[in-house]
Amino acid sequence: MNFPKLISTLFIVSLFIACSSDDNNNDYSDIYNLPSTPFNYSDINFPSTFTDYVFGFDNTPTDNPITDDGVTLGRVLFYDVNMSANNTVSCASCHLQEFGFSDNKPKSEGFEGGHTFRNSMGFANAGLYAPKNFFWDHRAETLEIQVLMPLQDQVEMGMTLEGLVTKLGALDYYNPLFENVFGSTQITSDKISKALAQFVRSIYSFNTKYDEGIEATNDIFIDFPNFTAEENLGKDIFNGKLTPEAIGTCVTCHLPNAVPLHFEQPIPEGANQVVFGGSETGNIGLDIDDNVEDNGVGAHMGIPSLNGHFKTSSIRNIEVTGPYMHDGRMETLEEVVEHYSTGVLPHPYLSAHMKDGNGDPRHLDLTPEESAALVAFMKTLTDHELINDEKFSDPFVN
Domains of the chain (ranges plus CATH)? Predict the structure, then answer.
């Protein structure tokens, strides 16, 4: 037997196998920085306040469960400027992690320098939003539908779905990512939609001072032991405890778990305030009439009685998600509180919960101390871990 020849042959075969293995692994560490084992997105240790009742509102479709590989792909897509027509903006350009996945500008800048029609809101816990509860005017029924709309908007990202599929198909670094999730390197708009929706749906927020307090007490009406006196006062105002005649002024809209609150019913003790945003839209008296540029839900649906109605956005991480309202007209939380305290206008389609017994705008009429306390309470909803968590950060090297 010719041992030198055999050894030489085995060496060449081994080298070929090794090279083939390297090709299959597709090392793109010069493009994106991803861990060899994906981050954990699918097996989260939720606090006790995230009960089975809360997860009854989970909007995850049966054909798109959260997987670690799926969210990893969605994360890369979310941060990739190649998702826009001229490679200048990504989804993350308008939804920045440091601002609770919102934008710190009143209206975001699109791929050609134009500005969006509305403020970009944060979306922590969007996986628990009720159906038809996406965008300020509720025009998207599901996250899977919602995530594709900015891509096709001619101000935001300027793509067509067909063009996007072709464009991403020419980027080799997506091959292993799509194959890991779908068993094929083939790219479709449906796969893009599912991966992006998985990423957004994986962004839960529950590591806050508020969540520590509710887990310790399981009662929204008693003082939280980890709160300051000012924060507890703000919590009482938020929940309506100090002013029974105006009970639910805050929680009516920013109610736990998107369950409507009826004035004649007490707020359930131990209510798990997970979403801090309602499933209904509302007109909160920002304008005196509907002679404005943006009439929200009314304009979208063609129903005049809904003019001035907009999504009740989550107030989780509200400390970092300013400016506020659908058009970013308010720069500070102090301005927001002052609006509810003294500034609600008598819009003809003002929501019922914003009116007093005479049909006039309801005002909280807070003292300076109470206003400051309400702001202090809202700041307990900031999740500092989320806004600094590497697994939700930009994975691209450059």
Answer: 38-204 (1.10.760.10), 209-381 (1.10.760.10)
